[in-house]
Amino acid sequence: MSLRDKLPAVPLGFGTAPLGNMFRNIPEEEAAATVDAAWKLGTRYFDTAPFYGAGLSEIRLGQILGKYPRSEYVLSTKVGRLILDETEDPAARDLGEKGGLFEFGRPNKIANDYTADATLRSVEDSLKRLKTDRLDIVWVHDIAQDFYGDEWLIHFEEARTGAFRALTRLREEGVIKGWGLGVNRVEPCELTLELDEAQPDGFLLAGRYTLLDHEKALQRLMPAAAARKVEIVVGGPYSSGVLAGGTHFEYQPASPEILAKVARIRALAERHGVPVKAAALQFALANPAVASVIPGASRPERVKEDHAALTATIPPDFWKDLRQQGLVAAAAPLPIDR
């Protein structure tokens, strides 16, 4: 059974990093209204992680989804970070290139640990925070250079001998339906595919297969994943928000070069009457290796925009012009290629 078969038929999921107070302090009622809006519009796949606000995203999601039938939605979370009872200043955390993503999150300390024992503990802790008796998919979180610099391979090796094996056993025992990596870089995914003993069901790849940034994934990861019949969930389809009117790219203020490219995409979209969100979502889903796309949101109106974007009609000439102007890679699959 492929990853696609484990996910809902509607390919639009919901990434809940914003519910962990990413970049801002989100009121409880706003977080609840956002998840409820997603549910009413048909979203049935929700992705979270202990890392998002030191457990805050999982706690909020568990409280809100608790009123809906568990059998009607797919739930994924991540391992690799343990949330401790000790506290610290969230703004002082060293998150590598990611800076103070969750400075408004819970003050609990976070311990990086990819061993088998920590993986099992993390799963148990997530079940409690999410108030559920089972997880569908578990991703091994952030074993990549953007969080660990030149030491990322040390963490990858710990995960290979720990989390990978523990999650494989949980899948074999029927405790979870699948596992893979949840990362912002293609290199750990490629390395995992080269391992004979690792058999991931898929990858959650954030920010690396978007309208703005996709060439490395297209050239290297997608062919390798297709050869192993491993599918991709695309996270961060709006490139940390810069494609949706924000100012962040890679979780940092966007560079002048990035802003200039976004301006070109936006000008072309406006000329054809195309919402940029629609172009971003439909571009990602045009690749046959992509099983789902999971934008994040913290306001109900943003969720409505995402669902409208999924089904918006985009004229073929927009895609042709996008390709002709070199704004997407020549080999990137587009909706007009189907």
UniProtKB/TrEMBL annotation:
Residues 11-323 form the NADP-dependent oxidoreductase domain. InterPro entries: AKR, NAD(P)_OxRdtase_dom_sf, NADP_OxRdtase_dom. Pfam families: Aldo_ket_red. It comes from the Bacteria. This is Aldo/keto reductase.
